[in-house]
Design brief:
The structure is a homotetramer.
Chain A (H helix, E strand, L loop, with lengths): L7 H30 L2 H8 L3 H8 L2 H21 L8 H18 L1 H12 L3 H4 L4 H4 L3 H14 L9 H17 L1 H8 L6 H19 L3
Helix pairs in contact in A: 1-2, 1-4, 1-6, 5-6, 5-9, 5-10, 5-12, 10-12
Chain D binds a DNA duplex (21 and 21 nucleotides) through helix 1 and helix 3.
Chain lengths: ~220, ~220, ~220, ~220
DNA sequence: TATGAATGAGAATTCATTCAT
DNA sequence: TATGAATGAATTCTCATTCAT
């Protein structure tokens, strides 16, 4: 009797594929419903894979969420890396960072929801993550260098904490986008209309550059 | 013979008390676990009241959440009203608004979680709220007047959209506080340490005032 | 201090009114949903009276159902009494009884549902009824006399059990009307269309009269 | 080394078995208590299966009821098919149909309760059934042929609507059996006593045959 | 690696009924 | 007589998770 031998390379690839399909489906589900509202059943449906397989690969819901979170961080870090801010003029670099942040959140809204969920759970999932490296943003260091370069050239004011600046840049986009539903309703303006979005970006650039640039 | 006279006010208050006790317990529960993670059972326990009563007063979980949300908005609007920004000098008023926002979020962290939950559900609960009045922030209008006053006096630059400014002020505090768990972990700094907090407040004031003040 | 004195006659009348309003609302509810599906809450709403009052007057759901059932029987017995079959010619009397049964069921569909509910519960509610008198149909006796009169006159065949005939007359209408929903669907005909109804009535008269009349 | 080979047929049968055990238990429960009074918990107990499994296979109570209803129709249709009325003499065929109906209702009293429940809910469950084929009785057509054959041979009268006749045959048995509890009580006769039952059957045959046979 | 079947614990919601006045 | 508030026990349904193969 012939045995059907499946070469390791293929089997592995299939298994990796399943894993990543699950991860992708889970990302969608968590983004849509939060950790508490996400359903393993729906993740299975989304992925067209058996529910049991999710447990096979990720042990339980929390660990699945953790994996999703890690992947999301990995992705944004990768994107940040490709910015090549170090090669730009200080003010151009800052502006580019503001724009990048805005666009990244805009194009990856799941990231915002994921962050929210993670923080609702007091960061438990991140703390338990082994992949600390991918989490730790190298951007702070880089930002410090840019600020220093700008200060030396006389373009920027001094005494700016890169972490504070980073948090501010993120916060300006984050709040607007993450809470866009309620804000749009309360203010009676569609904050996601193209014009509204471009106004927001201009405003943020003005605020951040107005701050870093020497009066 | 002594008659046991129970004034109507007390009987009435009982029902109002139950309602408000439930509302308070629900606020805690929703803040702690989000809408999806909140448990009606726990809300009943928290309030020392019968689970059935929650349904008696609020029909279902979503409507309870909505009521909690409305109450939270009512509360922050009330606090805003008491700021009396209109009586202050423009730059003082702006600074005070930044400080107020920061402190309010700091002292009422439930508000942040609630906002997150509401937006996770695409603002559905707010949209269904009948109490739109308490939701609509009168602050935008007031902020517009302050900006205009500052512009006229030559203190402030012109062309600032009060809504954008408001969102930025909120965003600077919001992101820092709402995501403090993961940020603290990633950056390896306790962002809630007293010193960190006061640094953040200074930074935010610099950013906002640096922006509004005429170079 | 003046005491507001309400004369007994008025108060009593109110109480009777409440009782009968509840009974009517309960009839509707039981007819619509059966005993198991009926809701005390809905009966209270229907009657615009307090739920507590239902218990005040009727002790519990089962006894309320029993009261409703008794009232329904009382009503049909009263209608039967007004038929005055005894004064008619035998064959006319039989035809009139068939027509009456059909029309009564048609106009009082609750009666059918009530009967169903009562029998689903093995007649428990009737057996516990004290009002047996109003339940016991005097019609059987009367029917016996009519059949005898017809037999003597040579119009009717002999040996007809009035109970069997009564049950048959009722059954011919009952099955058609009580199960009209499913029958209409299965047979693809609207059994409640005017033409269908009049055809049914003709058919039933033919069947019953064809049976009682001497070939 | 012995290999434990479990044929697919058994594994498959397990699931089918569970499904059919649930269906059977549900039939009993619905027959005993109606749709509103039936309890999923009791169905689970009856079937010695997990309550969760009921939802796994049937989604919810209504769909379970629908499945039970379909099965009941399937069963009676199957029994009807085995009657082979077409091979009999017209009058014999009619008598056999009356007897069959009576006996089927007698031996499958759940069918009556089920019909009642279905109609209490306005036939909603049947209408949503996809299995229309099993619902539609082929008997009407057959009955039409029998009536025609009888008419041609001069045995039967003409102008009989097979649907009306079918409904009448069913109604004569149905009313007696479905409402036997209250009828027995009201008339003070045990309608389920052997003698009473045989008298009923004779009566029904007389009524129906008296009607179809040419005077 | 993959999957359909099965389950216990729990969660939202409902219901008849009683309390207190 | 009338009523709003309160409740315990169910009841339907859900969810993460495991079994068996």
């Amino acid at each position: 009797m012939k045995e059907k031998v499946i070469p390791l390379s293929i089997r592995t690839r299939d298994s990796e594929r399943s894993r990543s399909v699950i991860l992708k489906s889970a990302l969608e589900e968590f983004a849509l419903h939060g950790l508490g509202g996400a359903r393993i059943d729906r993740i299975a449906e989304r992925s067209n894979l058996n529910k049991r397989l999710i447990y096979y690969y990720f042990s339980d819901k929390d660990q699945l969420f953790q994996a999703v979170l890690e992947a999301a961080y990995q992705k944004i870090r990768e994107s940040e890396r490709q910015l090549n801010l170090e090669s730009l003029q200080p003010s151009t670099a800052i502006r580019k960072l503001v724009e990048f942040t805005w666009n990244y959140y805009l194009e990856n809204p799941e990231f915002l929801t994921l962050l929210n969920s993670a923080n609702l759970h007091k960061g438990r999932h991140i703390e338990e993550s082994s992949n600390v490296l991918t989490l730790n943003s190298p951007l702070i260091e880089l930002l410090g260098e840019i600020l220093e370069k700008g200060r030396v050239s006389g373009e920027f004011r001094g005494g700016i904490d890169p972490l504070q600046l980073y948090v501010s840049i993120a916060g300006l986009s984050y709040f607007y986008l993450s809470n866009n539903s309620t804000l749009s309703f309360i203010f009676g303006r569609n904050l996601m209309a193209p014009k509204a979005k471009s106004e927001r970006l201009s405003h943020m650039c003005e605020v951040i550059l107005g701050y870093v640039l020497r009066g």
